[in-house]
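Internal ticket - ligand job 213, adenosine monophosphate:
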Amino acid sequence: MKLMFLGAPGAGKGTQAEVVSERYHIPAVSTGALLREAMANGTELGMKAKSYIDGGALVPDDVVIGIIKERLAADDMEGGFILDGFPRTVAQAKALDDMGIKMDGVISIEVEDDAIIRRLGGRRLCGKCGASYHIDYKPTAKEGVCDKCDGELVIRADDKPEVIKSRLVVYHDQTEPLKDFYAEKGVLKTVVGQEKIEDTTALTIAAIESIRG
Ligand code: AMP
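stdout (structure tokens):
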């Protein structure tokens, strides 16, 4: 099964991708996480990506397409995968088509901009392993400490209020047109993002079950 999550930053793509990955035993691939890992390791790619990410802009298509091509060629992708945060432009979606990859389902998680701005203010990230949390919706057992690796929680540089606004503009301009792109292919499912993570998960699982038929 090849699934994709679309949605604004903070809509819950990564959170739902993680749950779905565990439930269906298929790996989730997040280009944002791969880019943050490259930045943390100080690689050439990471250094190139940093200014775009910190400013709330998209990393150029050729760079991200290169990353995804390499990741999708790995052996663990053979039984299917979940894409989280890729594609983000029509050019990236066309690149997936050119790679001969046909998605079984594309799930768009819909959340209003006002709610996104509120949510992202409470988002936290493990500085060590990259796991994602939220102070209200997905708190850690011990405040400020990652449940998975005991790493320290940090606020993402691109979750600052002024950067969040740019990211939303980019989402509406460049990524939202992908809903039409995949609706025309007949694979788009819409899930209305709920206040509670488990409520969004229930709707997401229902959408996936309808895709599996
Ligand atoms: P995310 O973790 O998905 O919110 O991604 C964080 C940041 O990484 C985005 O705001 C972009 O700057 C960059 N990024 C992630 N995925 C892509 C992509 N598919 N195309 C371009 N930039 C991306």
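Auto-summary: The mean pLDDT is 95. The longest strand covers residues 2-7.
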